[in-house]
Every structure is written in structure tokens, then in C-alpha cells.
């Protein structure tokens, strides 16, 4: 079993829809939770990060962490075609620089 | 501000050949790492370094060597390429605030 599980999709939604992405994990030591966005043939770039449990909002993006369920989510409101990308969840323990990534979910927003 | 620069962008090797993937960062970051990305597998950590002269193994280190003689550079060496090493390789760097890793554009390697 992988340490971080993420449904690879693909996910296709119409413009303006809410996109819901999630990951589950098995390592209870994870304290830092991140979402990276990767456009085709580019390197990943950090979208959001959250420490421990709770919610974080940044514009159209909301990240949620539920440590009791070992489950994290990313919501994209009012999705745009420019949001079409692969979204990767990543996690790390509090005292370790090493990131564990999910497989990534490919999202297409149709105009 | 270049960020993290990887060279080459594309490479085709024959089985048994050796090569070095280059990675340089201009952000004075202490932490650097190499990942490989394969379909359905996400990014997997190969090797990482927490500073010049210090390196350690990640999840999938076999077949790869690294060294860190300067803060800026972190090359990845394939000593004897195998088809299983066909992948996209990403170098990343981060500061002491290690929640954000900055990635290069990747090197697409094919071993035939």
C-alpha cells in the first residue's frame, strides 16, 4: 500500500464548476500538507500548504486537512480553463525535509 | 531570477551508458533533492541533500549517485543506464521553510 493515495482521474468539468480533489494517507507522522499544480511538461509549483489540521483559503482555492481521518482535500471554486493541470498532494513529517507525493489527479476544465 | 535550472531538457541513452543530470539553483537554498516522475506513481524521492557536503538516500536510490560540493549545484549521476530508469527527473530546492519546494522544468530521459 502506498503511503499517500490519490485518485489519478482524469477529471473533466465545465467552466464555473467546483473541482474537488482529495488524498488519503497512512503515516500519522505527517504534519505538513501541500498541494502542487503541474502544467503539462512543466515542473510542479506550490499551490497551497497547511500545517496540521484545519482549513486554508486562498482566492478560489480551499485546502482542508482532517488528521483524524487521514484525509486532505482541495476545492477549486469557479473553475477556469486555465486551471486545467495535474494536481499533486504532498506531505511531510514535522522534522523531515522529504516529501511524499500522491500520484496526481489530472483535471480538465471545459470552456 | 532563474530559480532551479536543469540540463539537459531531453536525453536518449543506450543501456549501459552513463550520464550526469545537472541541477543548479540561485536562491541560496540549503536543501536540494532529486525526484523521478512515472505515470501513476507520482514523484518519488531519489536522493536529497541538506547542505554542501551532505547527501542521503531517498525512496528509490538504486542506480543513482549524487554529490553536493557547493550550495548551488546538485548533479545526479547514472553510472550504467537501464531501461527502468526511463522517466522524467525533477530537481527541487527549498529553504529552511521547507514547506515550499521549488522545482526545475525537468529532464526527460529515455533509455533504449
Question: Can you walk through the features of this model?
Answer:
The complex is a heterodimer of chains A (111) and B (112). Chain A is 0% helix and 58% strand. Chain A contains no helices and 11 strands. Chain A has strands at 4-6, 11-14, 19-25, 30-38, 45-51, 54-58, 61-66, 71-76, 85-93, 100-101, 105-110. In chain A, strands 2, 4, 5, 9, 10 and 11 form a 6-stranded mixed beta sheet that branches. Chain A has a 5-stranded antiparallel beta sheet with strand order 1-3-8-7-6, with no helix packed on it. Chain B is mainly β and 112 residues long. Chain B is 0% helix and 52% strand. In chain B, strands 2, 4, 5, 6, 9, 10 and 11 form a 7-stranded mixed beta sheet that branches. A 4-stranded antiparallel beta sheet of chain B has the order 1-3-8-7, with no helix packed on it. The termini of chain B are far apart.
Largest sheet descriptor of chain A: 6 strands, mixed
What is Rg of chain A?
Answer: 13 Å
Strand content of chain B: over 45%
What is the number of strand segments of chain B? 11
Proportion of helical residues of chain A: under 10%
The coarse silhouette of chain B is globular
Largest sheet of chain B: 7 strands, mixed
Order of helices and strands of chain B: EEEEEEEEEEE
- Morphology call of chain A: globular
Helix content range of chain B: under 10%
> Most extensive interface, residues per chain?
A-B, 24 and 25 residues
Q: Which key features would you list for this structure?
A:
heterodimer; A: 111 residues; mainly beta; 5-stranded antiparallel β-sheet; 11 strands; 0% helix; B: mainly beta; 7-stranded mixed β-sheet
Show the helix and strand layout.
The complex is a heterodimer of chains A (111) and B (112).
Chain A: E1 4-6, E2 11-14, E3 19-25, E4 30-38, E5 45-51, E6 54-58, E7 61-66, E8 71-76, E9 85-93, E10 100-101, E11 105-110
Parallel strand pairs in A: 2-11
Antiparallel strand pairs in A: 1-3, 3-8, 4-5, 4-9, 6-7, 7-8, 9-10, 9-11
Chain B: E1 4-7, E2 10-13, E3 19-25, E4 31-38, E5 42-51, E6 54-57, E7 64-66, E8 76-78, E9 87-94, E10 102-103, E11 107-111
Parallel strand pairs in B: 2-11
Antiparallel strand pairs in B: 1-3, 3-8, 4-5, 4-9, 5-6, 7-8, 9-10, 9-11
Amino acid at each position: 500500500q502506498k503511503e499517500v493515495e490519490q485518485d489519478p482521474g482524469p477529471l473533466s468539468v465545465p467552466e464555473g464548476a467546483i473541482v474537488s480533489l482529495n488524498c488519503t494517507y497512512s503515516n500519522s507522522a505527517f504534519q505538513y500538507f501541500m498541494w502542487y499544480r503541474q502544467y503539462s511538461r512543466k515542473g510542479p509549483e506550490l499551490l497551497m500548504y497547511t500545517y496540521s489540521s484545519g482549513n486554508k483559503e486562498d482566492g478560489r482555492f480551499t485546502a482542508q486537512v482532517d488528521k483524524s481521518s487521514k484525509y486532505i482535500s482541495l476545492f477549486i471554486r469557479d473553475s477556469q480553463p486555465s486551471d486545467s493541470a495535474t494536481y499533486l498532494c504532498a506531505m511531510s513529517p514535522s522534522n523531515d525535509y522529504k516529501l511524499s507525493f500522491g500520484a496526481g489527479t489530472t483535471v480538465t476544465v471545459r470552456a | 531570477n532563474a530559480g532551479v535550472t536543469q540540463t539537459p531538457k531531453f536525453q536518449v541513452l543506450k543501456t549501459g551508458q552513463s550520464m550526469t543530470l545537472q541541477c543548479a539553483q540561485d536562491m541560496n537554498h540549503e536543501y536540494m533533492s532529486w525526484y523521478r516522475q512515472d505515470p501513476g506513481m507520482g514523484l518519488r524521492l531519489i536522493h536529497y541533500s541538506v547542505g554542501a557536503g551532505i547527501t542521503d538516500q531517498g525512496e528509490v536510490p538504486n542506480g543513482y549517485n549524487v554529490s553536493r560540493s557547493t550550495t548551488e549545484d546538485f548533479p545526479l549521476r547514472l553510472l550504467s543506464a537501464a531501461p527502468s530508469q526511463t522517466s522524467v527527473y525533477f530537481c527541487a530546492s527549498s529553504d529552511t521553510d521547507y514547506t515550499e519546494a521549488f522545482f526545475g522544468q525537468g529532464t526527460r530521459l529515455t533509455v533504449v
